What we know:
By secondary structure, the protein is mostly helical. The protein has one domain. 85% of the residues lie in helices and 0% in strands. It has helices at 3-77, 80-90, 97-100, 104-107, 114-153.
Amino acid sequence: MNRTMIAVIALIVWSAAAFGAGWAWRGDRAEKADAKHTATNAQAQTASVNQARAVEHTQAATLADIGANHEEDRRAAEAVPAAVVAAVRAGDLQLRDDLATCNTARLSEAVAGAVERDAGAQLRAEVAGAVVQAGRDADDQLRAAQAVIAADRTEVTP
């Protein structure tokens, strides 16, 4: 073999080696870019999930507070009828005429005795207590429902 042929073969081998090295380097670079892109996407997804979880936890805490306040109001409302009855009987609270006269027809009957009148007065006080409790229960439920709606409509953005 002459020197020219050896030089040509060496050039071909060197070119093939350079081509292979360049191809491998390009592939490594592409894999590195792909890995960086994948890592960036994973970090973005993790941040998005963490943000959504934070919003859910905040909303859950808000709704739990609303529920706890509503339950406290419900427990406090159990004492309202007895307090209203006691206040009416003690004279500290007076009923409006339309509630106080709800049993007027019964009381004004000629056959009604003093016992029936006392029973009517006690019944009016008890009815007043029940009415106040029903109104308070409705107010408590309405406040809790409005708080839930307000919390739902408020978008929490960290």
